[in-house]
Amino acid sequence: MPYEERLCGRPLGMRKGKDGLLYVIDAYYGIFSMNFTTGALTRILPSNMLVEGRNLNFPDDLDIDDEGNIYFSDASRRWDLSTIYYLMTEYEGDGRVIKYNMKSGEIEVLVRSSHFPNGVQLTHDKTALLICEISNRRILRYNLKGSKEGQLEIFADVLPGEPDNIRTSPRGTYWVGFTSARNYTNPLFMDYLNPYPTIKIIWARLHHAFGTLLVSLAEMASYPFLKEVAYKFKRGDYVLPLLRRHGLVLEFDENGKILRSFHSPDGKISDLSEVKEHEGYLYLGSFINDYLGRLKL
């Protein structure tokens, strides 16, 4: 149930490490490893860990290199997964990308002041980290090695939607899932509000205030149905379905050029958070949908 999400946790990104363990990043509880054989679950990095004076408020996605470094995104200082609607509405720019060494315990912020950093993916040669920045509708490249080490560049810009997670293909390319495509005939919710920043802020604050009041009343009443309605309202669940959806998947080459695109114009399949290629199929995951999609290439 939505109102139990914070209690139960919500895994968002998963990777299989070189050591055979499954690494999971949870939006509320931090980073864990799981042993496939024993089922043992170990918390590696708790969300209340302070990094440069602030905790991990919205751990989102992760990747791991061969040296035991975990690269992960912390999407926002103020908002978490349960209030993601307001993060996107306010265009907040204090997200981070962080590097954590599991052997030494050393932790370092690589990227600051990012507008909703989400999916992260090491390049095939491990010299850079690709970062999907949802609110700016672009993909960044942070150079880890070489003459440009420490520099942040644009990998792909002015994308036709909001990029979520990014994953590799067997050919050395990159798949990206989008919450929804956008163009002049199919604008997204933020496109309607962006020309009116004051109205957008007022709308977000009123919606949040009313949602908070509903949640408080539902908690006092202690009825599961009322709790579900209140939490869904505050999270924006009743606003987004009113807008037209357009499913989109893009494949990029190593230089950020779009190679292929797959569309669901009627929105039957949309809100895609991750795309994984395996044995001639694309598997389509979502943070909202109650199914796993599959597309034959």
From TrEMBL:
GO terms for molecular function: hydrolase activity. The chain crosses the membrane at residues 21-41. Pfam families: Str_synth (PF03088). One of its GO terms (cellular component) is endomembrane system. Coiled coil: none annotated. Residues 60-146 form the Strictosidine synthase conserved region domain. Keywords: Glycoprotein, Membrane, Phosphoprotein, Transmembrane, Transmembrane helix. PANTHER family: ADIPOCYTE PLASMA MEMBRANE-ASSOCIATED PROTEIN HEMOMUCIN-RELATED, STRICTOSIDINE SYNTHASE-RELATED. Belongs to the strictosidine synthase family. This is Adipocyte plasma membrane-associated protein. It comes from Stegodyphus mimosarum (African social velvet spider).
